[in-house]
Amino acid sequence: MKETLRKPVLAVGPFHPLQEEMEFFQLTVDGEIVTDIDVRISYNHRGIEKLSETLQFDQVPFLVSRVCGICSASHPLAYIQAVEEIAGVKPPERARYVRVIINELERIHSHLLWVGLGGHFIGYDTVFMWAWKYREPVLDLLEAITGNRNNYGNVRVGGCREDVPNEIIPKILKELDQIERKTEMLTKAVLDDPVLHARLKGVGVLSKADAVGYAVVGPTARGSGIGIDVRRDDPYAAYGDLDWNVISQTEGDVFAKAVVRLLETFESIKMVRQALRRLPDGPVAVEVKEIPPGEGCGHAEAPRGETFHYVRSDGGNRPVRHKIRAPSYVNVPSFKASCIGQHIADVTITLAAVDPCYSCTERLAVVDGHSNIIHDYESLLQLSREKTARIKREIGAPELKLEDL
Amino acid sequence: MKALKKSVWVFHVNTGACNNCDIEIVNLLTPKFDVERFGIRLVGSPRHADALLVTGVGTRQAAKRLQEVYRQTAKPCVVFCMGACAGGTGIFEGAYHVAGPVDKIIKEVDPNAIIAYVPGCPPKPEAMISGVVKALAAI
Amino acid sequence: MKQQELDNRLAEIRDKLIDIEQKANRRIFLLCERENSYAVNKFLFEGLGLRFVIVTGIDSEDCFEILYHYANDETGCFVTIKAFIRDREHPEIESITPMLPAAEWIEREIHDILGIGFRNHPNMRRLILSDDWPEGVYPLRKGLS
Q1: Which residues neighbour B130 within 8 Å (Cβ) at sequence distance 6 or greater?
Q2: How far apart are CA C118 and CA A48, in angstroms?
Q3: A242 vs chain B: nearest CA distance in angstroms?
């Protein structure tokens, strides 16, 4: 009896301490090179689109801000823009600026979170601790403005629910100076480190052609030379009034995506400063009595890329249909293209480079469906760190130093 | 807040969460909150854990796996329902893919399970630490 | 491409459409029957090079609507194809995944939650509903609580 040789399968998964969500990736390997990936998602599916149809238009923002905890400002904003489009409503000037302030502060702490996680996956735990320590002041600022470190609940149809009180503007500006200094230090350390260059360059490359075929967005797209950004392409809130740059790179590797995120953080700091200085007086919301029949498309540039919401109204007080597309829904499948051909030691960082907001998409759960498991997640993490250690030895570079300010 | 007399090993389980609670749990490890000084340690396997930190609503797909993790956890153990979702499905009540809340799922395999609740959406890290320390000191 | 050029080029596909609607500023809807949806999708993606965004499936009681959203990033314009599936008993439509890998997941999702068949989909399997979710129950159909 002939037995066909089964290709070994790697499980990455289900519950591991630092990858907060459940995933379900099955990687097929030939030796130590990935040849195929299968994904099973369902663990985080809650049924939000259907739930939305049972809520009134002004209740939905609270629901969708919890689609994903770290894109929690972008989802409600995209939804609200779709509804404002149907109703032909323009929020007041001041609201447009407040929306920028909240969303850019979120981008800053989200990118810092990513840098920390990326560091952890390749064995740079000082980077992890440092990045997560220095994102705390951003969360404190958001709490001072909106009352919550996350789930700000700040947008509503017609404007914002909470204003940025003028009295705290000097404090925010001062805090931003600190955050900028620390981000500069982190960026310099990361971008100048020869070990990181050797570890991350050429790893997890997503070609421009694949980026188009998978319709990726955000830093995943901008790292592969596709310079799209909703804030510039279809300006919303006050982005059209501000002076800033879209950051993109061409190499499409993990390093390129890291550069995009780090440099974008500085653009975000710039934007918040401008928005605070130009914050016009006036109300922060207009009253909207009803939503007429119609359909609207709203999108916002979340930290992970374009968040798209489509809303249909029949003139009642609930949406008839509400479609939510998070950026990770198109970015995570591209992992197939960027991971095939990679060494298993690079699998975790390649996936992390997409910055999957698992909560947004559907979290992937990792299962071990086959008997030929060679490496579990712990083992993959170990391989990733060992590769970094090996490179460090070969290059003979000094330890990355980050001053504690 | 006094440190616990003995070190407590906790294992984190996400059963369908938006991530906020999960990120705050990871925050517990970072310098600002530094949960290790209270004797709390995050471990990589339920077999070594004294407590489970559970987030999320308990989706249909995650429910069986949560029960499996609970079975594997050394007894006695405490199940901490972190956040509004784990505590009672939160804002996702009535959603079609929700099998939770978490206590209902756990009690199916162990009606006498020890369950503690830390409310919030998400609970602040200070609230999580306070909840865990208080509950464990009381047991 | 610039907006004027986009408007001009959309006229090339007019014979495959029931109508072209302009909703808000830079929000265009192309209405068509399901038989023509593949050709219109191909025109937008391969012909015009627009960026695929996502697909929305809607149960409209007398028919199903499949909305394919595309973006023209240069002008921030959304072009949405609205394809009508009139046959409610056996609702199906041609899959666009063979030409657009990005569509794979969303077509599987719409199959899960609305029960729409996607002809020639290369990997039609359950995506977001749990392993134990009953067959034939489509949560996003109207009338299901």
Answers
A1: B1
A2: 23
A3: 30
With an 8 Å Cβ cutoff, are C130 and B96 in contact?
Answer: no
Angle between helices B102-109 and B60-72 in degrees, nearest 10: 50
Residue C67's closest chain A neighbor by CA?
A310
* CATH code of the domain containing C10: 3.30.460.80
What does the DSSP assignment read for A255-267? HHHHHHHHHHHHH
Local structure of A9: helix, strand or coil: strand
Q: Assess contact for C122 and C105: CB atoms under 8 A.
A: no
Contact A330 C131 (CB under 8 A): no
* Residue A394 Rama label (left phi>0; alpha psi -120 to 50; beta): alpha
Q: For residue B122, say if its preceding peptide bond is cis, omega within 30 degrees of 0.
A: yes
Please report whether residue C142 resides in a domain: no
- B60 touches C at CB < 8 Å: yes
How does pLDDT run along chain A (405 residues), one tens digit per residue? 333 444 455 444 444 434 444 456 677 778 788 888 877 677 778 889 999 999 999 999 999 988 877 778 999 999 999 999 999 999 999 999 999 999 999 999 999 999 988 888 888 888 888 898 889 999 999 998 988 888 888 999 999 999 999 999 999 999 999 999 999 999 998 888 999 999 999 999 999 999 999 999 999 999 999 999 999 999 999 999 999 999 999 999 999 999 999 999 999 999 999 999 999 999 999 999 999 999 999 999 999 999 999 999 999 999 999 999 999 899 989 988 998 898 888 988 888 888 775 443 323 222 333 434 566 667 777 888 999 999 999 988 877 777 764
| Closest to C54 in 3D by CA, of A217, A41, A293, A357 | A217
Inside any domain, residue C131: no
Longest dimension (CA), chain C: 51
Q: Which of A44, C132, C40 is nearest to B13 (CA)?
A: A44
Cα(A37)–Cα(A366) distance, rounded to whole angstroms? 12
A397 inside 8 A of chain C by CB: no
Examine the predicted complex and report whether its ipTM is higher than 0.85. yes
Q: Please state the domain extents for chain A.
A: 9-43+331-395, 48-330
CATH 1.10.443.10 fits A48-330, yes or no: no
Are A213 and C131 an interchain contact pair (Cβ–Cβ within 8 Å)? no
A15 to B46: CB separation less than 8 angstroms, yes or no: yes
Closest CA to A54 of A46, A65, A42, A63: A63
Q: Does domain B8-138 have CATH number 1.10.10.10?
A: no
Task: Provide the domain limits for residue C52.
Answer: 3-89
pTM for the predicted model, two decimal places: 0.91
CA distance A52 to chain C (A): 11
Tokens 């910055």 locate to A355
B53 three-class SS: strand
CA distances from A187 to A182, A399, B14 (A): 9, 16, 31
In angstroms, the separation between the Cα of residue B30 and the nearest Cα of chain A is 6
Beta bridge partners of A27: A10, A37
C97 falls within a domain = no
Q: Decide if B20 contacts B122 (C-beta within 8 A).
A: yes
What does DSSP say about strands B78-82 and B51-55: parallel, antiparallel, or unpaired?
A: parallel
Cross-chain Cβ contact C129/A45 below 8 Å: yes
Domain count, chain C: 1
Widest Cα–Cα separation across chain B: 43
